[in-house]
Amino acid sequence: MKFGDYLRQCREAKGWTQPEAARHADIEQSYLSKLETGRSYPSEDVYSRLV
């Protein structure tokens, strides 16, 4: 499974929208979208906030 797919599954399991999940991780919603679609990969700092 790709990281973006895993990230989306976890977000949906919590019942969060992208804006809600982005707010919890302190990132922009557009960046979260790029992570979920595989167009971007998180830095170590962002990764630790997402996990």
Would you give an account of this structure?
- The protein has 51 residues and is mostly helical.
- It has a single domain (3-50), classed as 434 Repressor (Amino-terminal Domain).
- The chain is built from four helices and no strands.
- The protein has helices at 3-13, 18-25, 29-37, 44-50.
- α1 packs across α3 (29-37) and α2 packs across α3.
- The chain is globular and about 25 Å long.
- It starts with a helix and ends with a helix.
For CATH, the homologous superfamily is named as lambda repressor-like DNA-binding domains
Overall 3D shape: globular
In percent terms, what proportion of residues is strand? under 5%
Order of helices and strands: HHHH
The total domain count is: 1
Question: What name does CATH use for the topology?
Answer: 434 Repressor (Amino-terminal Domain)
- Per DSSP, the total helix count is 4
What's the main sheet like?
none
Structural class computed from helices and strand pairing: mainly alpha
Helix amount, in percent?
A: 55-70%
CATH class bucket: Mainly Alpha
Point out poorly predicted stretches: none
Radius of gyration equals 10 Å
